Amino acid sequence: MSKSFKAVNVKTPSIDGKGIMMGRPAFTDDLALKDSLIIKVLRSPHAFAKIVSIDTKKAEELAGVEIVLTHKDFKRNAYTRAGQGYPEPSPHDKFPLDEYVRYVGDEVAAVAAVDEATALEALSLIEVEYEKLTPVLDFEQAKGHESIIHPEEDIYEMFPIGFDPKKNVAAAYSMEVGDVERTLKESDVVVEESFYTQAQAHVMLEPHTVNAHIDYQDRLVLYSATQTPFHVRRILSQTLEIPLSKIRVIKPRVGGGFGGKQAIHGEMLAAAITKRTGKPSKLTYTRKEVFESSCTRHPMRLDMKIGATKDGKITGIDCYGLSDTGAYGEHALTVFMVTGSKVLPLYNKVDSVRFHGDVVYTNTVSSGAFRGYGAIQGNYALESIVDMLAEKLGMDPMELRQKNMILENETSPIFEIMGEGTEGTAMNMDSCKLDYCVKRGMELIDYKNKYPKRKVSDHKVRSIGGAIAMQGSGIPYIDMGAAILKLNDDGFYNLMVGATEIGQGSDTILAQIAAEQLGVDVSKVIVYSSDTDLTPFDPGAYASSTTYVSGNAVLKAAKEMRSMVIAEAARSLEVDIERIEFDGEVFRVKGEDDKITLSDLSNRLYYNEDQKQLVATGSYYGTKSPPPFMAGFVEVEVDLETGEYDVLDYVSVVDCGTTINPELARGQVEGGIVQGLGMAVTEDVHYAKNGKLITSDMLNYKIPTNLTLKKLTTEFADSYEESGPYGAKSVGEIGIDTPPAAIANAIYNATGVRIKTLPVTSEKILKRLKDKEI
Amino acid sequence: MKVNATINGMKRVLDVQPDEYLVDTLRRYNYLSVRRGCDTTSCGVCTILVDDQPVPSCAYLSVRADGKTITTVEGIPKHAEKLSEHFGETGADQCGFCNSGIALSVYALQKSGKGITDETLRHYLVGHLCRCTGYQAQHQAIKKYLGDSDE
Ligand code: FES
Ligand code: FES
Predict the structure, then answer these.
(1) pLDDT by residue (tens digit) across B98-109?
(2) Is B133 in the pocket of ligand 2 (CB under 6 A)?
């Protein structure tokens, strides 16, 4: 199965780590023009209100203030910040600035001034009169609530997504295979439970940052910490009515995204301000703004029913979901669909399966894309209830999974029914090593000896919990990635990709893919990403698409470049192409001594004979989305007197096909695991009664630290996906999915208490333990 | 106000506001490796060395820097480069927004000559948040780096 490679699947340090560690200017704010106007945003103190009047006169008169913008300054062009392909599956329900404010932190006005102090003072001089409206803060009360969050008439869906704003519904979805109610009625055993997930925050360490200026060709140039530079350009153009050709978006080094930078944030205001003033401007969110005014994971309630025969064949799964998209509907439908489509196929042998529900608006921080993208919510619910079912059946939960889970060469009808916002694509699991992942994971965690629990002192127990997961690799038939390879004199290459390096290592792995095909060292492939003027199109870094979609584009470009240089070598050596042997550095004529090096050939092409520039292009869109799979196991130590627990070890065994870069792939898995553990263990979200987010700084919102867990054990299955570049599938998201269920299962095994609302905090455990005693 | 400080071995006179924090002053003077990740002194991204001690520059008033020796990662290129090789080896590189601050703390630890164990390293680094790596690969790289440079 594994093949022998020279550049892929071998240890390769990231191509940019050194310069980043040494502190070289790289990130968006490092590259802002020195005299940029500083933009500050006035934000709503109310969860829901209408702006009755807004007076900016005093602010405008303050020395050093360049411009003040309110909703009166914008034409009403509804757009979505989601940062998706076009037409978007998210409703166009947002305006650059609006007369309504829909959550605490929503934008009211923007100021640009010579420095931050002046901009802040100007904000305090803006006089706003609000008419307070009744906010909808409880998402379970939102549908049909008398308070309508989006009463305006000029918002719309791009195609049918179940958009019904008069009922506070941003999107709705329903699908069924078989007759699930009948199946459950006829099942020997049925388990039913509801689960709640919270509005996890991304907390990428670089806040949302953008700067803008007009260049000497009179074009608007933005540097933005974005995952989707091409979508940003399109959305700015459509909304601000600036021709697409007049905008250039450059994505420099990005300090983490995790989905949070898929959406548009400061770009709209910075573009509008620089366009109007002709002056450079910049906007960096404060950390509080990142928490309060960007986006979060969609909180959900998932009502699960699962049935089985006595001997443990899962017969049917029914999932009703209610998802909270907050004030705006970014990713409302697609995250919701993924909650079903990238979770339910795990148990593909059921007779019936149903997934349905609504995505509702509330007057809280908007929800959006976040690594895992619905799958983590669905995984927590499904993999919790599978453990509950196993207990009811008197069966080992891993045995139950092994008996029912999807295997290689199998399929699920769900793949064809559910896509992302549209219908899906039928596909077979050509590569699926989930069975190996489970078996190997059980060995690594020592399941045989440690499951379900062991007492380690009179009040402490250690226990094990597990879960399995799948994700996808890009969005088939929708998202296209492209690459350009250019040969230089002396025989090295430039690789220009629209694919968006955001810290996940895509520049490095795409260089490796090109180097493998071209037969050169990675150092001979110079990568540049991404710039809407200079690099070819790419949707951006989301939907686990870069390795698979953009990687395939790079591979195609490299194949074409390889044939081009061979053709040129044949011309220069005056033989037929078929007679050329090429190892990446030297062209030889079969059976003869004649040869020419790539370096000499390149110099000849540029300076001496048959002069020409060699450029190869490749583009690719998926016709399927082969899922990576994994099994995750956690060992915890729980103090039964306090409910406190430590995470001792997290074992992950992952099938992502070939790991293009094994160390960076491990980094993706481990980073995902620890973010998932954050959601499972520490990242609690609280709102005040008036709808203000309380957990809006890093003191109150606790992401994992150096001390959070003791050990990560990560392995990869030997797997090869024929349709992927050199056998690769995606690996960016799969790591995040299992921790919530694995933790909840482990805590149950230790304490007999099942936590059905994330995160699994010691307070909740203790309270339930106390309730049990009574 | 004028502040006299030695930055990365060079004597500088900085013009600062009384309420300005060093992270902002340093960025203004083009020490762009010093970056801001939060507004509550929680993340460690802005770490610099003041007289060889790691300090969050977002909580250090610039006026206090008068007469002090300031080190940013630009001032320890050899050490940063060596550490980055170990990060490359263990796959600890991701976005790198946290890296420069970590490099300075690790350099201070190395200079202090204190021995470390797994446990003490975790505690030592607890002020440095990283949202990308899950920490373990960073620990592995730092231990190798410290082991290497002992020799
Ligand atoms: S910027 Fe976060 S600690 Fe200084
Ligand atoms: S590498 Fe991104 S925050 Fe540490």
Answers:
(1) 999 999 999 999
(2) yes
Identity of the residue in A23, A287, A706 whose CB atom sits nearest the CB atom of B135: A706
Whether residue A269 contacts residue A110, with contact meaning beta carbons closer than 8 Å, is answered with yes
Instruction: Check whether residue B100 and residue B39 sit in a common domain.
Output: no
- In order, the DSSP letters of A319-382 are EEEEEEEETS-TTHHHHHHHHHHTTGGGSTT-SEEEEEEEEEE-SSSPB---TTTTHHHHHHHH
Fold of A300-475+624-773: Aldehyde Oxidoreductase; domain 4 (3.30.365)
Statement to judge: residues B12 and B39 lie in one domain: yes
Architecture of domain A32-133+205-256+261-293: Alpha-Beta Complex (3.90)
Range of the domain at B126: 76-148
Ligand nearest to the CA of A287: 1
User: In chain B, which residues have their Cβ closer than 8 Å to the Cβ of A707?
Assistant: 122-123, 126
Same domain, B134 and B85: yes
CA distance A645 to A688: 28
Distance CA(A361)–CA(A414), nearest Å, equals: 27
Q: Is B126 found in the same domain as B89?
A: yes
Select from B26, B27, B45 the residue to mutate for testing ligand 1; criterion: most ligand atoms less than 8 Å from CB: B45
pLDDT digits (tens, 9 = 90+) for A137-162: 999 999 999 999 999 999 999 999 99
Nearest partner of A478 among A532, A543, A432, judged by Cα: A543
Is the Cβ pair A705, B129 closer than 8 Å? yes
Query: Ligand 1 pocket test: which of B36, B102, B104, B126 has the largest number of ligand atoms within 8 Å of its C-beta?
Result: B36
**Is A505 touching ligand 2 by the criterion CB < 6 Å?**
no
C-alpha distances out from residue A716 to A438, A628, A658, A663, A724, Å: 12, 11, 9, 11, 16
Q: What CATH number should be reported for the domain holding residue B109?
A: 1.10.150.120
- What is the spatial distance between Cα A266 and Cα A406, in angstroms, rounded to a whole number? 43
B65 and B92, same domain (yes or no): no
Query: CA nearest A584: which of A487, A519, A524?
Result: A519
> What's the pTM value of the predicted model, to 2 decimals?
0.97
For the segment A431-447, the average pLDDT, to the nearest whole number, is 98
A674's CB contacts (< 8 A; 6+ apart) are A704, A708, A709, A712, B133, B134, B135
Q: Kindly report, as residue ranges, where domains of CATH 3.30.365.10 are found in chain A.
A: 17-24+480-621, 300-475+624-773
Q: What is the CATH number of domain A17-24+480-621?
A: 3.30.365.10
CB contact under 8 A, B38 and A27: no
Would you say the CB of residue B95 lies under 6 angstroms from ligand 1?
Answer: no
Q: What is the count of structural domains for chain B?
A: 2
Verify whether ligand 1 is closer than 6 Å to residue B37 (CB atom).
yes
Beta carbons of B131 and A205 less than 8 Å apart: yes
Expressed in angstroms and rounded, the spacing between residue A255 Cα and the centre of ligand 2 is 7
Q: Is A117 in the pocket of ligand 2 (CB under 6 A)?
A: no
Distance A698 CA to ligand 1 centre (A): 10
Looking at the DSSP assignment, which residues form a beta bridge with residue A305? A192, A318
CA of B59 to the centre of ligand 1 (A): 8
**Smallest CA–CA separation between B61 and chain A, in Å?**
16
Residue B6, burial from CB neighbour count under 10 angstroms (0-12, 13-18, 19+): middle
Q: Does B120 touch chain A (CB under 8 A)?
A: no
The 10s digit of each residue's pLDDT in A724-746 is 999 999 999 999 999 999 999 99
Beta carbons of A647 and A719 less than 8 angstroms apart? no
Residue numbers in A near B131 (CB within 8 A): 202-205, 256, 258, 671, 675, 703
pLDDT, tens digit, 9 for 90 and up, residues A291-349: 999 999 999 999 999 999 999 999 999 999 999 999 999 999 999 999 999 999 999 99
Of B37, B77, B133, the CB nearest to A670: B133
Counting every residue written for chain B, the total comes to 151
